[in-house]
Design brief:
Distance between the termini: 79 Å
Radius of gyration: 26 Å
Order of helices and strands: HHHHHHHHHHHEE
Largest sheet: 2 strands, antiparallel
Number of helices: 11
Structural class: mainly alpha
Number of domains: 2
Shape: globular
Strand order of the largest sheet: 1-2
Length: 254
C-alpha cells in the first residue's frame, strides 16, 4: 500500500512539473493574467462616478511584473518558439517605455530575425518613438530576411519622415529628406505592393497615397485638376481659375 501511494505521489508530482514547465502554457498564464487585471480595472473605472475616478486610477494594475515574467520566460527558453512571441508581447504591453522593452528589442534583433512573430514588430516599434525603436526599424529595413518585415519597417520609417517634412522649414535639409522619402515610397510601390499591413491594407496602395500627397498636395505644388459643377449647375474645372485665389471646401452628407 505504501509503495502504491508513493507511486501515485511521484506520478502526480511529475505531471505537475511537466505542466508548469510548458513555456506555451506559462506564457498564456502571463498574458491572460495581465489581460484579466486590466479588464477588471477598466470595469471598475467605468462603473465609478467621474468625480471619484482619480482615486481609482491609483489602483491601475502594475504592468512591469508581468513584463519581467515574460522576459524571464524568453530568456530561459531561447530556442523555444514562445521566446520571440513573449518578447514581441512585451512591446505590445509596455505602454510606458520601460527599459525592459528596449531589452526585448535587442533580443529580437539578435536571436529571432527569422521568426514569424517579427511580422508585426515594425508597427509596435513605430508606437514607441524612441531612439532604440528608430534604430531597430532601420536595422529591419536594411537586414531583415523577411520581405514583409523589411517592407513594413520601411513604411513606418517613411511615414514618420513624411510627418517630419510637414514641420520642416524650406531648405536643403527638407529637400534632401523629401527626395529620400519619395524614393523609398516608389520602391515600396514597385517592389512590395502585395505586402499587407496588420489591418489588411496594401503597402503599395498606402505608399501611392503618400506619394500623391507629397508630389501633388504639398504647399508649393501645382494643384491637381478638379472638375465638377458650380452652384448654378454649370460645368467647371479648377484650371479655369488659374492665377486667382480659390477656396475649395470639401464636405459631405451622412
Amino acid at each position: 500500500m505504501r509503495m502504491f501511494l508513493a507511486l501515485i505521489l511521484v506520478a502526480s508530482s511529475c505531471f505537475g512539473q511537466d505542466e508548469s514547465a510548458d513555456p506555451a502554457k506559462a506564457f498564456e498564464a502571463i498574458s491572460s493574467g495581465l489581460k484579466k487585471e486590466m479588464n477588471d480595472f477598466m470595469t471598475l473605472y467605468r462603473s465609478t462616478p467621474s468625480e471619484e475616478r482619480q482615486a481609482v486610477l491609483k489602483k491601475r494594475p502594475k504592468v512591469v511584473p508581468y513584463l519581467e515574467k515574460a522576459w524571464n520566460l524568453a530568456s530561459e527558453n531561447p530556442e523555444h518558439a514562445i521566446a520571440p512571441k513573449a518578447l514581441v508581447w512585451i512591446l505590445t504591453a509596455d505602454r510606458e517605455m520601460n527599459p525592459i522593452g528596449d531589452k526585448a528589442i535587442d533580443a529580437l534583433l539578435k536571436d529571432h530575425l527569422d521568426s514569424p512573430e517579427m511580422e508585426n514588430l515594425p508597427s509596435y516599434l513605430g508606437y514607441r518613438r524612441n531612439e532604440k525603436a528608430a534604430a531597430a526599424l532601420q536595422t529591419l529595413a536594411e537586414s531583415s530576411p523577411q520581405p514583409a518585415v523589411k517592407a513594413k519597417s520601411m513604411f513606418v520609417i517613411v511615414s514618420n519622415d513624411s510627418r517630419s517634412l510637414k514641420r520642416m522649414p524650406p531648405g536643403p535639409e527638407k529637400e534632401a529628406l523629401e527626395a529620400k522619402t519619395i524614393a523609398t515610397l516608389e520602391t515600396l510601390s514597385a517592389d512590395y505592393s502585395e505586402v499587407k499591413t496588420a489591418r489588411g491594407k496594401s503597402i503599395g496602395e498606402l505608399a501611392d497615397a503618400q506619394l500623391f500627397s507629397l508630389t501633388a498636395l504639398a504647399i508649393g505644388k501645382e494643384a491637381p485638376e478638379i472638375t465638377g459643377e458650380n452652384g448654378a449647375g454649370v460645368a467647371m474645372k479648377l484650371s479655369d481659375y488659374r492665377g486667382k485665389v480659390v477656396l475649395i471646401d470639401f464636405w459631405g452628407d451622412w
